[in-house]
Amino acid sequence: MARRKKIYEGKAKILYEGPEPGTIVQYFKDDATAFNAEKKDVIDGKGVLNNRLSEFFMTGLTQIGVPNHFIRRLNMREQLVRNCEIVPLEVIVRNYAAGTMSKRLGIAEGTQLPRPIVEYCYKDDSLGDPLVTEEHIAAFGWASQQDMDDILSLALRVNDFMSGVMLAVGIRLVDFKIEIGRIFDGDYQRLIVADEISPDGCRLWDIETGQKLDKDVFRRDLGSLTDAYSEVARRLGVLPKSNVTKPTLIN
Description:
- By secondary structure, the protein is α+β, with helices and mostly antiparallel strands.
- It has helices spanning about 45-65, 100-105, 135-140, 145-170, 215-220, 225-235; strands at about 5-10, 15, 25-30, 30-35, 40, 70-75, 80, 85, 90-95, 110-120, 130, 170-185, 190-195, 200-205.
- It has 2 domains: about 5-85 and about 225-235, 2-Layer Sandwich (Phosphorylase Kinase, domain 1); about 85-205, D-amino Acid Aminotransferase, Chain A, domain 1.
- Helix 1 packs parallel to helix 6 (about 225-235).
- The model is unreliable at about 245-250 (pLDDT under 50).
C-alpha cells in the first residue's frame, strides 16, 4: 500500500491526505501537552479514547443538525473528515469560571456564570493563542460579521447539546473549545464545526464530587489521564462499563 502523504502534524493529531477528493484522514496521537507545550508526555491510549469520544460527539451533532467535518471513523486511531479551511480562532464557551478566566477576572473556580460566555483566541502557538475581541477579528479579516454571527450560533448550539449529554451522565460541562472550518460549494461558503471535540478541549467535572475528568488531570498532576478519559467514555457508553482502564489498541 502506498504511504499516505502527511499534510500537517500538530500537538495531538496528524493529518494525512484522504482517499477521496475533499477528505482528510485525522490520526489521534497519544501525546499530551499543556501550558503551550511547556509540559509534555505520552499517555498510552489517549489517542484511541479521543478518537472514539470525538466520533461520539460529532455524530450526535450531525443527528441534531449541527454541521461538522466528521464523515466516519476508520479504525481505533483514525477518522475520515472533510477538508476545510480552518478559521484561525479558538472558540471557547464557558458555563462556569475556571482556568484562565478565574485568574484573569479573580472569580473563584466553579462559579456558575450568569449565562454562557463565548470568547475567542487567535490561533498562534508562538503567541500563546492570545484572547482577542470581535474588533480584532473584523479589523484583521479573520472572519466577517456574518461569519461571527454563524460562529456564535454554532458554539451555543454545541454548548446546549454537550451540556445536556454530560448532565445526563453526572458530568458538569464547565467549558470547552472548538474550531470552525469553512467549506465551499462553488461561490457559496458554509461554516462547520471542525478539528475534534474531546476531553482534551473541555473541562468536565463530576457533579457529585467535583472530580476533574479532563486534561486538567495532566496539567495539575491529579492522577491518571487515561483513567479520567476512560471514565467519561464509559459513562457515555463509548466503552463498556466492564472495559479495562487502558483500551485495547486494535482496529
